[in-house]
Design brief:
Chain lengths: 124, 167
């Protein structure tokens, strides 16, 4: 049985569970942005956006740097890990599915033992 | 049907791989231990398809499964997870017996086109699935959907935990 490993889906998945935070990551994938820019793009208060960025930052998905009065956000290292994690979760789904497919095909093979259809003759 | 002999099925080495081959495309591969005609059959007959498409570990059940497997024919799958319902539907674009199957995923405007090829070798079948999305954003969003699915599982677990505790 396939177990979805919780370890892979810790903070980054909690961070990614929110539609705004996923939007912020997509936005930062295109270009770095200040919290003010992000708040404007997502039609949100500065305080609200700071909270979202804080969650992403704690999950390692985003890093921020304050230069003068402007705090700039960019993607953190764990963005790549997050992508790898969702691909892994997808792989687990397909793996479980194909394990079941194997069983179905195995049952069909027993029902229909036509295995000698391949007339492979060793002729020169 | 003598398919219930668990443990009789030897584990095989041909694990599932998933790779994002471009901004818009995922490729999934797997070798299944059987000839292509049987694998194709398991993919195109609803009574067989429903036995494997929704593994128990997914925590969902398949409510209905309609498949009109011919070019231009439609399919519709309806799932339940707790009280939630979801439907997946689309159109078959290519039906080449024992070698190729392609369909659209129309439940979203940004749905992928899935193509599966069946290549038989030595009594086993290599499956190669391509999922081509209309844009990079659509594939990224599908990843988001996978995240959301995980989140749903966790919420379900929490809910079950709560219910268990309150009984």
């Amino acid at each position: 049985m396939v177990q979805y490993s919780r370890a892979n889906f810790d903070a980054s998945f909690a961070a990614l569970s929110d539609v705004t935070r996923r939007g912020v990551l997509e936005q930062l994938g295109r270009a770095d942005a200040s919290i003010t820019d992000l708040a404007g793009k997502f039609d949100m208060t500065l305080t609200g956006m700071k909270k979202h960025v804080g969650v992403l930052e704690r999950a390692g998905l985003v890093t921020t740097e304050k230069v003068g009065r402007v705090r700039t956000c960019k993607l953190g290292q764990r963005r790549l890990e997050a992508e790898a994690a969702w691909i892994e979760s997808y792989r687990q789904l397909w793996d479980a599915r194909f394990d079941e497919l194997d069983k179905v095909v195995e049952a069909l093979k027993r029902q229909k033992p036509k295995e000698k259809v391949n007339g492979r003759t060793k002729r020169r | 049907m003598d398919a219930r002999r668990e443990g009789k099925v030897a584990p095989i080495e041909h694990g599932t791989t998933v790779e994002r081959t471009s901004e818009r495309e995922l490729v999934i591969t797997r070798t299944v231990n059987g000839p292509a005609r049987l694998v194709f059959e398991a993919w195109t007959k609803p009574e067989l398809f429903r036995q494997w498409w929704v593994p128990k570990s997914l925590g969902m059940s398949l409510l209905s499964c309609e498949m009109d497997v011919r070019v231009g024919g439609r399919y519709r799958l309806e799932f339940a997870q707790g009280d939630a319902r979801a439907a997946f539907f689309g159109t078959y674009k290519d039906v080449t017996p024992h070698s190729r199957l392609a369909w659209t995923n129309e439940e979203s405007d940004e749905g992928s086109v899935t193509t599966v090829t069946f290549a038989e070798k030595g009594g086993k079948t290599l499956l190669v699935m391509h999922e081509l999305y209309p844009s990079k954003e659509a594939l990224d969003a599908a990843g988001g959907a996978a995240d959301a699915m995980e989140e749903t599982f966790e919420q379900l677990d929490e809910l079950l935990g709560t219910l268990g505790a309150s009984v």
